[in-house]
Amino acid sequence: MRVLITGAAGQVGRELVEIFADHEVIAADRGLLDVTSRDDVLQIVTTTRPDAIVHAAAWTAVDACESDPDQAFLVNTLGARFVGEAARSVGAHLCQISTDYVFDGTKTSPYVEWDEPNPQSVYGRSKLAGERELGPEATVVRTSWVCGRYGSNMVKTILRLADEHDRLSFVHDQVGHPTFADDLARAIRLLVVDRRAGLFHVTNQGSCSWYEFARAVLAASGADPDRVGPIATADLVPARPAPRPANSVLDNAALRLSGLPLLPHYGETLDRLVKELRT
Questions:
Q1: Percentage of the chain surpassing pLDDT 70?
Q2: Which positions are annotated as active-site residues?
Q3: DSSP three-state, residue 175
Q4: Is the pLDDT of residue 279 over 90?
Q5: Average pLDDT for residues 128-151, to the nearest whole number?
Q6: I want to staple 264 with a disulfide (CB 3.0 to 4.6 A). Which of 6, 21, 214, 268 is the partner?
């Protein structure tokens, strides 16, 4: 199978390139493909004629999106439109990565795929609009709190801050599922190879607050988790420009009900990742 991966230099994109290594991979990073250019997207897709496209390219700087909505919608929405159009033109199966930010976070239980989205941030609105640019034959994978070996992410940030400061503070009133890029890539591979259409929530299992997650990261590194203290989102200084959903917990209902394997508990992968980052 020939697989085109957009955003191939990102933390998920790099894992996708590796996980599809036994197929023919076209790794389209930003230098090779500008997804905001319809002509560029159509040219690379019609030239390479992939069997599948995994659209991992996105502008994920949540706070920056808030101050530049046009750019957010250009990348996250029109980019999806252009990739979807190109995929249809060659009969390629399309899988797009989306986000927990499509929800407002007010639900008191985990969000399933059939809950009504209500994004509160520009980033969330642009990603939801991107989902809606795709037809029913596409696969949409919503995920949350992504961390991994590559790029900037919260695990690396927590380890760095722990090296620089004796005491750390993380919010206790935002809850979600940490998701690790390599586990996510394996799940995406399964959905793409099977050409599974529709919407899937794909996260590692186990929910926690950022405060609890930071404690888990310190514990995995051999440091004292009691160095981390809780803080309310409202007390963050400076305040974050983009609102965050208080409840980002995604129930992987479509995977579970389809009899497909769920990702492992986040603690299992966290231990492995921290060991790798510390060696």
A1: 100
A2: 123
A3: strand
A4: no
A5: 97
A6: 268
